[in-house]
Each structure stands twice: as structure tokens, then as C-alpha cells.
Amino acid sequence: MALNDTPTLAVSALVTNTVLHGHGAPIGLRGFSDDQELRIEVRDGNPQPAQLRAVGAEAESGRGLALVAALAKEWGIFDGRTTWCSLVVPRGAR
């Protein structure tokens, strides 16, 4: 997968989650990078933290955080409203 595909998928999954579950509050998106890592943070207005869910094969949604977890070096939630992930920057892309 090309470097730009992974962050695009991660941002898409995180932002979609905030649109669906953020209670209509403004969405915040921030990114930080250095030579080794890209960190993406998405904040919403939902006081309930995002949750990784197990969904059946026929489910039409609910896989966003599973996708982020599969793509990311690590991911998590802080302050109850911000979901983040850290992606490795491949050597050739530095």
C-alpha cells in the first residue's frame, strides 16, 4: 500500500466515526509528523469514547476502528473525545 493510501484510509475511518457518532458537534482534525511517524487525531462532541466493535460479516458498518487498528502502529483515545492513531513512515518516503 502506498504511503498516501494508509493515512487517507485512517482519516476517512476516524472522521466518518465522528460524523456518525459526534452528536453534530464540530469535528477537529490534527496531524503531526516527523521522519518516522505520522500521528492523526480526530476530536468530536460525543462524551462517550469511540469503541472497537466486533461486527458480523453481513454488517454494513462498524469496522472503522478495526481498520484503523489494522493499519496503525498504535491507536487510542484520550480526553474521552479524541481518537488518534500513529502510522509508520516507510524509509523510502522520508
What does this entry look like structurally?
This protein has 94 residues and is α+β, with helices and mostly antiparallel strands. Helix content is 27%, strand content 27%. It is built from two helices and four strands, in the order αββαββ. The chain has helices at residues 5-21, 64-71; strands at residues 28-33, 37-43, 74-78, 82-88. It has a four-stranded antiparallel sheet with strand order 1-2-4-3, with helices on one face. β1 (28-33) and β2 form a beta hairpin. α1 (5-21) runs antiparallel to α2 (64-71). The chain starts with a helix and ends in a 6-residue tail after the last strand. The mean pLDDT is 87.
Report helical residue fraction.
25-40%
Identify the overall geometry: globular
Q: Report how far the terminal alpha carbons are from each other.
A: 16 Å
Which ranges are low-confidence, i.e. pLDDT below 50, for 5 or more consecutive residues? none
The neighbouring-strand order within the major sheet is: 1-2-4-3
Radius of gyration: 13 Å
Total helices: the number is 2
Number of strands: 4
* H-E order: HEEHEE
Largest sheet: 4 strands, antiparallel
Mean pLDDT: 87
What portion of the residues fall into strands of 2 or more residues? 25-35%
Tell me the structural class: alpha+beta
